[in-house]
Each structure stands twice: as structure tokens, then as C-alpha cells.
């Protein structure tokens, strides 16, 4: 199926599911495979969507779709709760592939393929910076409380006139975010300022507890600098980090920066390639301090 020039605003608790992959549903009798209308494997194509092509509501799921050529962010959620975006293909978006701004509760971004995102306008702290591109963008401010699981995504060919990100997480105000960023493949990012494979920053008095595990970052080009992984605390924020088994290549660079606040990191830094560079007062704590399991 091909849908041309259409956007969609989901209603609370809707599931927007595409043919081509299996989907499960839960009932009082158990969990079952959803019956299919076809036996094909091609994902339904939504092409040339206006603005934010799919706008999430609370409790929604988007799965098994191919979004191509969106005029803005491909999948966008703002001031909603508990969303699930999995096994989609996103190509030729402007701004962000998947963008969550002040999404509360528990969110899952799993197994998506995001390719060719160019610079646009993103919400939150980056709203004042024009021409930023991101594969996955998560921001939280105010008193937002969120757990976000970003796992098994393949992100490539992200560009930005200012900055480009494979995955970026920003917290501000008094927000509290627990992020699991594991087993993602990020490659071919370029920007005129700085391309980042993975960036996570806590501002204000916010709290960011994050696990970054077994991610691969390679082929960052252009800009004044190129940074594979960057995690930082600013102001009076708090960062707790488990960094394990990540590999960054071209450039081989991982930066941890404490520019205020409290920054604690579990004693797993030696499992990463290369060994991270620590800047500012960063305290090493025992493995298991933040309660993460295996990435």
C-alpha cells in the first residue's frame, strides 16, 4: 500500500500497525498473533507527509511502517505519555526521525531503521538552534518523569547545518529521566559544527540516569569536531551513568564532562573502545549502583 501526502494524528491508546511484519495482541486468555490480511513482507509506504507525519498520543504504538520524504519530523510526540515506536523504516525526513518532547511515563523506541535525515527545527532546548538533524531525539523539561528504552535501532546518514545526532537525550528544569540506550548502530553523520553519535546532557536541576551499552558509532565527518559519545552534566543537574561495551570509530572518541552538578559513573569504563576521556569532577562508583541489568 502507498499513501501519498497524508499525515496522521493518533488518538489515545491507538495502535497503528503495518502489514509485512507480525504483531501480537493481549487478551484475557493470553497473548496471540494478530491475524494478517496478506502474506506479503513489504511495509506500507507513507510518502511526502506534511509537517510531522505521524503525531503520537498517549498510549499509542506505531509499528511496521515505511515513512519517506516527510516535510518535518517523521514520528513526533509532545506532552503525551507511554508510547511505543518499533520496527519502522524512516527515510528522507527533515529535523528528526523519531522525536519525543516531554513524553512522560515509559517509552520504547525499538528496532527502527532511520536513514537520511537532514537539518530542521527540533523542539526543547534545540529550538533556538536552526538546522539540526537527529535520528532519535528525546527531550524532557519541567517536572517530566520518564523511562525511555532506545534499543536495536540502525541510524545512518544524518546531516545538519549546525549539529547532527544519531541519538540525543536532553533533560532540563527538574525533569527526571532514566534512559537505556543499547545495541544501536550509528554511522555516517555529518555537520558543519559538530556531529555526535550519541549525546546525553543534563541541565538545570534535572536528573539523568543512563545506561549506554554495546552501541557502535562510526564514520562521523565534517564540522569543527566529531564526537562518538558525549555525556555531560551542567549547572546543578545529576548524572548517573553505566557505560559498557561501546565502540566508536572514525573518530574513536568518548567524552564524559562534568561542568557542574553531580556526575557519577559505574566502574565499567575499561570495557569501551576507546577508553573514555573524563573532564571535571566525575566520581566512579561500583557496578550495579544504578540497578541496570545486562545491556
Describe the model.
- This protein is an all-beta fold.
- The chain has strands at 2-4, 8-9, 15-17, 24-27, 30-33, 45-47, 54-55, 61-63, 66-68, 75-78, 84-86, 89-94, 96-101, 105-110, 113-118, 132-140, 145-151, 154-160, 163-171, 176-182, 185-191, 194-202, 207-213, 216-221, 227-244, 247-249, 254-266, 277-279, 282-285.
- A hairpin with a 2-residue loop joins strand 4 (24-27) and strand 5 (30-33).
- The radius of gyration is 18 Å and the shape is globular.
SSE order: EEEEEEEEEEEEEEEEEEEEEEEEEEEEE
How many strand elements? 29
Specify Rg, calculated over alpha carbons: 18 Å
- Oligomeric state of this protein: single chain
Structure classification: mainly beta
Helix content: under 10%
Mean pLDDT: 94
* Unreliably modeled segments: none
Number of helices: 0
Largest sheet: 18 strands, parallel
Q: Name the overall outline.
A: globular
What is the beta-strand fraction?
over 45%
For the termini, the CA-CA separation is 36 Å
Summarize, please.
This protein is mainly β. Helix content is 0%, strand content 57%.
List keywords for this structure.
0% helix
Blueprint (SSEs and pairs):
Layout: E1 2-4, E2 8-9, E3 15-17, E4 24-27, E5 30-33, E6 45-47, E7 54-55, E8 61-63, E9 66-68, E10 75-78, E11 84-86, E12 89-94, E13 96-101, E14 105-110, E15 113-118, E16 132-140, E17 145-151, E18 154-160, E19 163-171, E20 176-182, E21 185-191, E22 194-202, E23 207-213, E24 216-221, E25 227-244, E26 247-249, E27 254-266, E28 277-279, E29 282-285
Amino acid at each position: 500500500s502507498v499513501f501519498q501526502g497524508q499525515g496522521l494524528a493518533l488518538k489515545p491508546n491507538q495502535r497503528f500497525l503495518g502489514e509485512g511484519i507480525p504483531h501480537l495482541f493481549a487478551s484475557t486468555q493470553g497473548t496471540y498473533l494478530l491475524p494478517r490480511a496478506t502474506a506479503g513482507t513489504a511495509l506500507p509506504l507513507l510518502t511526502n507527509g506534511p509537517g510531522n507525519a505521524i503525531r503520537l498520543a498517549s498510549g499509542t504504538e506505531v509499528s511496521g511502517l515505511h515513512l519517506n520524504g516527510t516535510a518535518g519530523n517523521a514520528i513526533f510526540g509532545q506532552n503525551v505519555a507511554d508510547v511505543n515506536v518499533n520496527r519502522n523504516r524512516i527515510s528522507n525526513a527533515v529535523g528528526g526521525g523519531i522525536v519525543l518532547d516531554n513524553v512522560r511515563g515509559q517509552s520504547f523506541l525499538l528496532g527502527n531503521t532511520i536513514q537520511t535525515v537532514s537539518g530542521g527545527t527540533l523542539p526543547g532546548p534545540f529550538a533556538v538552534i536552526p538546522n539540526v538533524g537527529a535520528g532519535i531525539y528525546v527531550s524532557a523539561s519541567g517536572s517530566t518523569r520518564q523511562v525511555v528504552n532506545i534499543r536495536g535501532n540502525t541510524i545512518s546518514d544524518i546531516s545538519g547545518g549546525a549539529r547532527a545526532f544519531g541519538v540525543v537525550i536532553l533533560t532540563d528544569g527538574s525533569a527526571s529521566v532514566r534512559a537505556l540506550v543499547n545495541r544501536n548502530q550509528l554511522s555516517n553523520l555529518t555537520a558543519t559544527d559538530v556531529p555526535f553519535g550519541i549525546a546525553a546532557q543534563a541541565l538545570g536541576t534535572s536528573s539523568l540516569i543512563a545506561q549506554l551499552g554495546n552501541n557502535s558509532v562510526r564514520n562521523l565527518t565534517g564540522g569543527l569536531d566529531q564526537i562518538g559519545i558525549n555525556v555531560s552534566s551542567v549547572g546543578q543537574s545529576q548524572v548517573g551513568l553505566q557505560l559498557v561495551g561501546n565502540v566508536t570509530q572514525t573518530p574513536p572518541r568518548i567524552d564524559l564532562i562534568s561542568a557542574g552538578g553531580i556526575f557519577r559513573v559505574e566502574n565499567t569504563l575499561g570495557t569501551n573502545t576507546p577508553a573514555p576521556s573524563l573532564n571535571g569532577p566525575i566520581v566512579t562508583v561500583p557496578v550495579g549502583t544504578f540497578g541496570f541489568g545486562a545491556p
